[in-house]
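Propose amino acids for all 302 sites.
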């Protein structure tokens, strides 16, 4: 979950890390919303291109909704490995510092848990292992009240998706071959006059996106979202600048289920209005397996 920043002092390294985590999380949510908008909204004026075999935008949207819902449901039952490359950039866009974490993403009582495997090429330190073990045990012994709070927060992060039907106008702009798969290409732009609601819905008018939809089973192959207007996060914490970008690439693991393969976030932000932060975060995902077939699905102890 996105951490809460309560400090309002000069930016320490810990504050910068927390702010950067918020930026990465938010940009991911924004690009997800942009993609979802392409699936959620359609118009009576949508018409097929000049070829009988090409479905209309409305038909692509309808099929994509079903395909995406199936993929999201299936991903809730998969475990996988995540590689998180967290980089600071200089004014020329070159990497000046980097942290790399490799984690196994497992299920604990049905909740996703990040089990740290490696930090900067080394095994986790005793302190890192201790903290990871404490978090694991806490989640494993989660009370019904704590679970309710967690699920409520998860729902809050997803609730803005209800707004995307009104947030964007989109059109089918062509077809391309992406990683060897034929795809429809759709463009989403903010709908004039849209007024978002909720924690994230208000940000949808500040982004635009492009989506590649698989022609065979209508899953997402790629999503490219970009911030078109800068926006603030938190109270006196960070302002994400125009031009920040997220590119999500997905892969099909069979049965029409599409899962993330690579997520590249590149952003410029001003922390506490004092320090500029250029960051790039690259997350790669691999080794997807059904949780039921592995020892990495943990149930509450009786």
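Proposal:
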């Amino acid at each position: 979950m996105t951490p809460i920043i309560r400090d309002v002092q000069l930016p320490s390294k810990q504050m910068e890390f927390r702010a950067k985590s918020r930026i990465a999380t938010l940009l991911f949510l924004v690009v997800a919303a942009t993609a979802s908008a392409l699936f959620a909204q359609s118009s009576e004026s949508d018409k097929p291109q000049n070829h009988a075999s090409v479905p209309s935008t409305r038909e692509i949207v309808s099929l994509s909704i079903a395909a995406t819902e199936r993929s999201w449901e299936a991903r809730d039952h998969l475990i996988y490995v995540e590689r998180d490359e967290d980089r600071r950039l200089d004014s020329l866009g070159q990497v000046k510092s980097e942290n790399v974490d490799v984690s196994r993403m497992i299920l604990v009582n049905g909740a996703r848990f990040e089990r740290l495997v490696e930090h900067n090429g080394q095994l986790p330190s005793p302190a890192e292992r201790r903290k990871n073990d404490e978090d694991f045990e806490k989640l494993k012994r989660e009370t019904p009240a704590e679970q309710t709070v967690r699920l409520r927060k998860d729902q809050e992060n997803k609730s803005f998706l209800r707004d995307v039907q009104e947030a964007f106008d989109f059109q089918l702009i062509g077809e391309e071959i992406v990683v060897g798969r034929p795809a429809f290409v759709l463009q989403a732009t903010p709908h004039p006059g849209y007024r978002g609601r909720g924690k994230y819905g208000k940000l949808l008018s500040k982004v635009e996106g492009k989506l590649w939809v698989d022609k065979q089973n209508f899953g997402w192959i790629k999503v490219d979202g970009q911030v078109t207007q800068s926006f603030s996060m938190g109270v006196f914490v960070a302002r994400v600048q125009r031009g920040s970008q997220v590119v999500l690439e997905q892969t099909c693991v069979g049965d029409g289920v599409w899962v993330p393969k690579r997520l590249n976030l590149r952003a410029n932000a001003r922390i506490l209005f004092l320090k500029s932060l250029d960051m790039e975060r690259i997350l790669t995902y691999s080794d997807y397996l059904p949780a039921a077939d592995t020892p990495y699905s943990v149930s509450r102890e009786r």
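Confidence is low (pLDDT under 50) at residues 1-25, 34-52. The radius of gyration is 20 Å.
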